[in-house]
Amino acid sequence: MKFGYNNKTGKVWSLTSWLDQADPNKGNFELKMDPKKSNGVFLMRGTEILWMSGPWNGYGFAFMPEMLSPYIFNYFNYSMYSDENETYFSYSLYNSSVITRFIIDVTGHMRELLWFEESQQWMSIWSEPRQFCEVLNSCGPFSSCSEDTTSCRCLRGFYPSGKQQGQDGGCMRRVALTCGNGDNRDMFLRMNHVRYPVSSTQQINSSYNFPSGPQVSNSDAKACGEACLSNCTCSAYAYNTSGLCLRWYGDILGLEQLSEKDPNGRTIFIKLAASEFDNGRVLGANWYLWIIAIPIVLVVFLPASYIVIRWKKSFKNKGDREDPSQDILLFDMEMSITTSSSNFLATDNFSSENKLGEGGFGPVYKGKLLNGQEIAVKRLSKRSGQGLEELKNETMLIAKLQHRNLVRLLGCCLEQGEKILIYEFMPNKSLDSFLFGSNNEGLLDWGTRVRIIEGIAQGLLYLHQYSRLRIIHRDLKASNILLDGEMNPKISDFGLARMFGGDKLQANTNRIVGTYGYMSPEYAMEGLFSIKSDVFSFGVLLLEIVSGKKSTGFYHSSSLNLIGHAWELWKGDRVVELMDPKLEDQVSYPMLYRYINVALLCVQEMAADRPTMSEVVSMLSNELTVLNSPKKPAFSTARSTTNSSNQPEKFSVNDVTVS
């Protein structure tokens, strides 16, 4: 596949869509390189740009981080070439036996497809645009896009230029910029939690209205703002902690409003006329309504506020007379709302001696109740990738679930900036410390591993089929399996779990979260998840338990990962070689063979081919059940070892939660 142009003749190599499903004549959409020579690729509809890849950075395109994900990076060899004669981007397959095709359908949706011989089906491994907000001009100029509601909204100080807000031409300024000094000088509106605009418009030739990105320079924050203020065509600026000043000129396109919990959120300053501000604060579009509303609000709000303040003061005084340590230190089995002071007391002020470990949520500490019961206290870290929504999600879900193979939530705290969850204490910590650590190896014998496998399967079966809610865990892995004093497994960490209602069997998300090495292909590549996504994760976990090796941390000369290695041994009838050497004198070989068979059934490429957890439990426990032969699993293709020197040869992100 090759995209580019001849620098001398002007010839362009591009890909166009069909006119319709049955007519291969040139259609409405074309994928081509940027003639401005920014080494970027654009999806065009006539002269309109719908999507852009961002510039080439040496490894991939700036707006396509998925190019470097292990699920795509290991299939394709990318290259960008430029000299005085031609400039082009191309890619090829490391494995010439793999069949692939790239298409633009009649709706302008781009997809990369792989052919899977076993299932006789094409499978999409990449697609763009994936979200409504990723279509470059989906909302028009000076409008923000919200993916949560798939809607557009005019920025403050702007009004719709068409019938619908933010659409049919975007938005226009309510008051023109003055570009003056003194009292009439323009000012800036601060917008938080946004994704920077992809571009601002700039006419570069007579045929195409190509967008250009922000101008970037080094300066301090004040100089950055002054530079934009002194240029009448500058529409917005941003300043980051690295000392980079970004300025956008002309119409702003592609601004996206993110949720407060999104770690990708940034701050931008939009230039508005001084008359849009009142003593430094922006007036809304319907400012005249405030003249009517403010007296009404004062009449109603002030008496109500007085009553609320008196009530809260009375409640606080009552609480001050009680020992704040009693709420958590005396509660037993019921869900409790605790105070931050009691959590400090239970954990000895979160001392380092009581720290059990740290995960994506934050550190976990050991604590003790007044009745002697030991507990685990999970405290949200300020630098955590997870936040209040994940905490709420876990609290609501796990409080409604009761099963011997699910960890029990005892209480929570949302007070004085603290976000804390309190669980039953698991003295043997997590499964990964036994499988991949050097301590307590003797405790994980074959019988214990069998009990752990069966317990995890029973816990998942409960989540999928027998609980009051159908729950998809979405982050099942060894570090999320906790072990009690008798080495019984407990599934933990429901912060990323999703609840299904009614007869719903699968869902789609644009925010892919989970852990590399455990995610199913349809989820990692397309955002599709279902109970079969958890089944895939269980299959990976089962292989790790019987082998004692990490899924993505394991490399073999002819295999991409542990799944690929297990598949090669299965095809060669050498599955015994997968067994953890420490189990050599303990294992039941027919049971080992059955467990590996079940694991490979769980990690099959197509979700429809994988068993349900009820079928998995039956296959694991009933020796008379006849097992099917597994089809080729996902992510098992070996990658060529002739990598270029500037690309990583190995990587392991087995313990990294991504979003």
From TrEMBL:
Name the Gene Ontology biological process terms. recognition of pollen
GO terms for cellular component: plasma membrane
Top-level taxon of the source organism: Eukaryota
Sequence ranges of Polar residues compositional bias: 637-659
Q: Where is the Apple domain?
A: 179-273
Keywords of the record: ATP-binding, Disulfide bond, Glycoprotein, Kinase, Membrane, Nucleotide-binding, Serine/threonine-protein kinase, Signal, Transferase, Transmembrane, Transmembrane helix
Tell me the SMART domains matching this sequence: S_TKc
Main EC class of this protein? transferase
InterPro entries (alphabetical): Kinase-like_dom_sf, Pan_app, Prot_kinase_dom, S_locus_glycoprot_dom, Ser-Thr/Tyr_kinase_cat_dom, Ser/Thr_kinase_AS
Q: Which GO terms describe its molecular function?
A: ATP binding; protein serine/threonine kinase activity
**Where does the record place the region Disordered?**
635-659
This enzyme's EC code(s): 2.7.11.1
Q: Where are the transmembrane segments?
A: 287-309
Under Pfam families, the record lists: PAN_2, PK_Tyr_Ser-Thr, S_locus_glycop
> Catalyses which reaction?
L-seryl-[protein] + ATP = O-phospho-L-seryl-[protein] + ADP + H(+); L-threonyl-[protein] + ATP = O-phospho-L-threonyl-[protein] + ADP + H(+)
Which PROSITE patterns does this chain map to?
A: PAN, PROTEIN_KINASE_DOM, PROTEIN_KINASE_ST
Could you list the residue ranges forming a coiled coil in this record?
none
Q: Which residues form the Protein kinase domain?
A: 350-625
User: PANTHER family per the record?
Assistant: RECEPTOR-LIKE SERINE/THREONINE-PROTEIN KINASE SD1-8, RECEPTOR-LIKE SERINE_THREONINE-PROTEIN KINASE
The protein depicted here goes by the name non-specific serine/threonine protein kinase
Whose protein is this, by species? Answer: Gossypium lobatum
